[in-house]
Amino acid sequence: MKTQETSGIDVQIRRAQDLIQKARDELARKIVGQQAMIDGLLTGILAGGHVLLEGVPGLAKTLTVKSLADVLDASFRRIQFTPDLLPADLIGTMIYRQQTGEFVPRKGPVFSNVILADEINRAPAKVQSALLEAMEERQVTIGDTTYPLSEPFFVLATQNPIEQEGTYPLPEAQLDRFMLKLFIDYPTPEEEREILRRVGVPQDIELQKTIFKNDVKKLREIVARIQVDERIEDYIVRIVTATREDDERVTMGPLRYVDFGASPRASIYLYRCAKVRAVFAGRSYVIPEDVKAVAPDVLRHRIVLSYEADSEDLTSDDIVDMFLSNVAVP
Fold first, then answer.
1. Domain of 296, in residue numbers
2. How far is CA 78 from CA 24, 38, 71, in A?
3. From CA 14, how far away is CA 36, in angstroms rounded?
4. In CATH, what number is assigned to the domain containing residue 305?
5. pLDDT tens across 60-70, in order?
6. Distance (Å, rounded) from C-alpha 229 to C-alpha 235?
7. Across-strand partners of 54?
8. C-beta neighbour count of 64 within 10 angstroms
9. How many helices (H) and strands (E) does the chain have?
């Protein structure tokens, strides 16, 4: 027999599912397929984290982020990262006002709810690092003053993995601040035919706003109420700590393919994203399959591979799969 509290969270979860499905349906009017990318972006929003999208050109990464911003009732700015970009172009700077003889702040595009950092790896490290304070502390310092950023605040970044000339790989410190790294794959032949029919004749599809700022806050509150058993918590910790060096195990199993393991942020983000996955499935509790489902997106950019992994053509996803296979499921 369900308690009143359990019944209440079940009703809230159903409402959350309806709202999430409305957002999916609205995005589907413009985006063909790419359900994993859409769900990954929604996961980042509900879990309160930033998302890095990686894929070859032409897979609708930028279009999907712009469409998501249209569905959200939130301010949106797109920043095209280029080699000549400066930190002040992102966060703003102090300008001299001749009429009053004083310096006043001119805020940059980072003062928005949704930031699209397009081709983030085309700007040098000093520009990439300008996002670090905003991404982690949700604030920006201009001159001597620190300004809080409005909530919700998301950085959704894209990068192209096939071009290396004129690019600057993101440092591990910044990669770790992205909750999820999503690999975007090619559409299926059926989806590509649908793309031809829909985009072959240019048309302007105006998306309706379905998720408002207050909705984001309520959805996060529902996610926070999802139950996580102690055995699931232990499972999350064992997965993350298994990626770290241990003198007794370093030459055994997948650890020989790893130079540096995942940070404690990985445990936190696995915990949060597994809760969101439970909401997607309409459950008020997390199961091991929720953790497994989000583990590749949370861990793939937090594991630094060794030379031995490169020599055997192993990817970070291959290594994550090894760790998931080696850790006992509760």
1. 226-326
2. 22, 18, 16
3. 21
4. 1.10.8.80
5. 788 888 888 88
6. 10
7. 159, 183
8. 22
9. 14, 11
